[in-house]
Amino acid sequence: MPNLTAERLSVDLGARSYDIAIGPGLIAQAGAEIAGLSDAPKRVVAVTDHHVAELHLATLERSLGNAGLAFDAFVVPAGEASKSFAGFEKLCEALLSAGLERKTWLIALGGGVVGDLTGFAAAVLLRGLDFVQIPTSLLAQVDSSVGGKTGINAAQGKNQVGSFHQPRLVLADSGALATLPRRELLAGYAEVAKYGALGDASFFAWLEEHGPHVIEGDATAQIRAVATSCRAKAEIVAADERESGQRALLNLGHTFGHALEAETGYSAALLHGEAVAIGMVMAFDLSVRLGFCQPEETDRLRRHLAAVGLATDLTDLPQVDWNAERLLSHMRKDKKVANGRLTFVLAQGLGRAFVTQDVPEAEVLALLQDVIAASALGQQAIG
Ligand code: GLY
Q1: What distance in Å separates the CA atoms of residue 53 and residue 323, rounded to the nearest whole number?
Q2: Residue 237 CA: which ligand 1 atom is closest?
Q3: Pocket perturbation via mutation, ligand 1, pick of 116, 141, 143 by most ligand atoms within 8 A of CB
Q4: Is 191 in the active site?
Q5: What is the pLDDT of residue 381?
Q6: pLDDT per residue over 181-214, tens digit each?
Q7: What topology does CATH give the domain 182-382?
Q8: Contact by Cβ (8 Å): 50, 195
Q9: Given the CA of residue 247, which atom of ligand 1 is nearest to it?
């Protein structure tokens, strides 16, 4: 195994600042990392899901025990259903029955579902507990574990009930990425490419060369990709924790992507990252139509995402009866709608994204109609 160098950076939020460590073996070092903090807890409760428990819980428990921390663990079912009101209630009752105290910390060991659910439990139980994120998916390592967004889903939509609650520490173990199915790794990669596309053209160029290595499992490339992504997110979150402005840049591709996910029922037919990849291409296409961006920039984005193996338009997806009006109506229910206007992240080019509410809905509708028409032609050609 090559000698891998861990990276460490911090999210600068005054008294609520915290470190993000990225590197190999961090689950095995979690106990020492937590015990080394100035106000370290005596007891921690880990929350994870069945898949992750099989792979990593024993390592975490050993490390907590070695560091002299008392611990319990709760295992929730894997999958989005755990982020329901019912799943949340069950978890809170189990945690409360285990005898929490204000000084007990929670640990979220897993992907985005476990992180969001555990973070929200930490935000509200006993009016607020500290918690540590140990993200095991690429998507969670580069996005959901950083920045303090926590929450659960409602019948009305994803992440509609939640809170900003920052973790005390994030430990992104690069070794965990080796256990991910390729499809999940690819979906997480869309969020990595997002950081290049939204604000860092040189990172995007680096990804054009090394993105395939990230997907093939090159740990050095993975650590650099995760660290650069986290650094970008940490800077944005430090400047705008509660998304009153710049943080919305992190939603590049998400307004379109969420509509696609809603239309496919947030099912395994289309993973979040897969929807974001297609959504980013749509956002760049819209930027070209509105005269902000050169078509070559969209082509470069599309080529890179396709080169690593991500779908870049609807033709690449399982057949769905797409409807432009319906997609637009999903967009209108987005959390980012302000004063009835849709919020879009558009771009002047790779690395030069901006947030706007000045996009005529007719332009969005026309784009969706054209994309759907092109995908119908593509499906015919494939069929
Ligand atoms: N996932 C976008 C954000 O954390 O703001």
Answers
A1: 40
A2: 5
A3: 143
A4: yes
A5: 60
A6: 999 999 999 999 999 999 999 999 999 999 999 9
A7: Dehydroquinate synthase-like, alpha domain (1.20.1090)
A8: no
A9: 5
